Amino acid sequence: MGTMILKVLSLRDEADGIRAFELADPAGGELPAFTAGDHIDVHTGTGLVRQYSLCNGPLDRRAYVIAVKREPMSRGGSHWMHDHLRQGDLVTIGGPRNSFPLEGDAESALLIGAGIGLTPVLSMARTLAHTGRTYTLHCFSRSAAHTPFREELSAADKGGQIFLHEGLEIDRQKSLLRDILAEPGKRALYMCGPMPFMEQVEQIAALAGWPTGSIRSENFGAAETAKCGDRHIEVVLASSGRTIIVPADSSIARTLIEAGVNIEVSCEQGLCGSCLTRVLEGTPEHRDTFLTEAEKADGTLILPCVSRARTESLVLDR
Amino acid sequence: MTHVAPKLDIELYDETLLIDPFEAFRRIRDAGPAVHLTRYGDVYAIGRYQDVRAALANPTVFSSARGVSLNPGTNERLAGTTLGSDDPGHARLRSIVSRPLAPDRLAELRSSMAASAEALVVRLVEQGTFDAVADMATHLPLTVVAELVGMPVEGRDRMLDWAAAAFNSMGPADSRLTIDALPIAAEMAHYAFDPALAAKVAPGSWADQLFAAEARGEITRAECGSLLTDYMAPALDTTIFAGSSAIWLFANHPDQWAWLRQNPEKLPQALNEILRLEGPVQQFSRYVTREVDVGGVTIPEGARALMMFASANRDERKWETPEKFDLQRRAGDHLAFGHAVHTCMGMNLAKLEVTALLTALLPRVERFELAGEPRRVPNNSLRGFAHLPVRVQ
Ligand code: HEM
Ligand code: FES
């Protein structure tokens, strides 16, 4: 599970701002096995390590296929992937690892993916198809141009039902989700997408009577800061009034350090409490294991090395 | 393309080098991202900030489960400690050991610690001349370990020897310091594993809570013994050295002390700079589970990789004028407490202790002066003073 060096076999623009990379053994050998929902760590040339879900099916050991969305606010990983990585280049990767497993006994699954979050569920769909199980896959995106792997998705004979929902109004999307989630608990539900979308699904599912914990969603865990569906955050420093944009693929703490703000970090995993910061405005989304549940609920403290925001901006006591 | 690691023949664990290692650290950093220290067999030193940090964040390749020392005896002793394990087992042990070190529990200690530091400092300032190690920096850590960990009195007497030995025993097998330390470290382990101990520790103490966790079946008796050493070994010399090294830095840089007296709210920032330059823990090792590329050079599977915390903290690639003691520097991301999953568990406690001491000194001491020749302790993993005679005004 350490690192290996792979070659970019091919790259292809799959949708607006989304580029797919096929990474293969330079010597042409088979790659280590993986399972649906696995991700790999890509060591980008910026020094940042980024996690990307694998989107091909696990039977395909010829290459790892990842899809990378260019984050407009990013200065880091995704830009490097788009701007610097070319066919034939070598790149160091770690993994594959799984934080989003497909449970072995799911006879039939309900898969929901939105935007770039389609990548892990697509791999799950492929696995289910290979193993003779059934699935229904709902793909949400802003428009046809924003749907990755659209050609494949619309092709027939996928071993399951695939629905594309492109450019829906918010109310239409909600009522559709209510229909999709109308039969709670009947099938295993897996989803991945931007944070607000996942929250919406969770809310509707809860109202429809899905037991809490029955929904499996992509979560890279405390060890990594990037999570499928993260968006950029506006951070305002109370002492100076300065506004700093934290890109989707960097932590609040790292971005502030790079901007010259004095902030302490040690573990950068939400474990040690070094970076503890007071929140003056906005609502944190806690991802640490340091604060108590009561402190998390209170919302006046944040560990910016891992945690993000539910609101678009946060005012921090820095 | 990755390359064979450059080789250096440096006696990193030679006693004179242990006292003054920074030139050797620089040679290692300049030689490459990972450097084969041929003198010690399969040991690869990682000395640059970015590479140390990245390796610490990659515990599947840089594993702690076969110990973090350079000799088999100590690595065996470390089995079952938090320090010497990998996730997921490590996370389970850590969640138990770290309970009393949680911030809400520590907050309860703040005022008593401040009072204790103040009483001590008032007395020493009156005295005028004292040993900043024995008379001052030792006080809080020893009180903490004795009272909070809850060791019975007969165990307390040996505690300082055990702690020093635990760190010395991390060295290479043929080092005199290692050889002398092994039996003393073994004595500590023996004490921690003594079945009679459970009945003797102070009720409600950290040790008592471990025995309670054992009684509830959360950990085994063997784990309980190992976890006791997680409290006993790293809580003394580390913090004692941090406190006394701070005084040494201020004695040599009176302007910095004056600045801090004017800006006492900058104490947390100052503490980072102190730990960056004079971090007590110099390096620990990892077992390399598979061949790995570090900054373009290869470390082979089965090697030992040295995580050089103290070298990283002086890496000119990361820090501007790294040798300079500058309290206004933003040193918040130093590696003196490590990084990632094994980040020091006692960090907040150690900071609380050193902060209490410096807070008591700030209003009472205008300047520190050396009142004799300071003497450093050679130790295979630590940096600090045995004696530091100072005079205060
Ligand atoms: C200034 C004082 C201290 C310094 C510089 C320091 C330094 C460190 C370092 C560098 C590590 C990382 C080891 C590694 O990565 O292999 C560590 C781990 C650890 N420290 Fe400290 N330490 C200090 C004080 C303390 C205190 C007071 C305690 C106990 C109450 C403590 C308990 C521990 C434990 C249990 C670990 C292992 C954590 C784990 O493996 O998850 N330390 N310390
Ligand atoms: S740096 Fe450790 S919790 Fe943020």
UniProtKB/TrEMBL annotation, chain A:
Coiled coil: none annotated. Residues 231-318 form the 2Fe-2S ferredoxin-type domain. The keyword Zinc does not apply. SUPFAM superfamilies: 2Fe-2S ferredoxin-like, Ferredoxin reductase-like, C-terminal NADP-linked domain, Riboflavin synthase domain-like. Gene3D superfamilies: 3.10.20.30, Nucleotide-binding domain of ferredoxin-NADP reductase (FNR) module, Translation factors. It holds the Pfam family Fer2. It comes from the Bacteria. GO terms for molecular function: 2 iron, 2 sulfur cluster binding; metal ion binding; oxidoreductase activity. PROSITE patterns: 2FE2S_FER_1, 2FE2S_FER_2, FAD_FR. Residues 1-103 form the FAD-binding FR-type domain. Keywords: 2Fe-2S, Flavoprotein, Iron, Iron-sulfur, Metal-binding, Oxidoreductase. This is Oxidoreductase. It comes from Mesorhizobium waimense.
Automatic annotation (TrEMBL), chain B:
SUPFAM superfamilies: Cytochrome P450. InterPro entries: Cyt_P450 (IPR001128), Cyt_P450_B (IPR002397), Cyt_P450_sf (IPR036396). Its cofactor is heme. GO terms for molecular function: heme binding; iron ion binding; monooxygenase activity; oxidoreductase activity, acting on paired donors, with incorporation or reduction of molecular oxygen. Belongs to the cytochrome P450 family. This is Cytochrome P450.
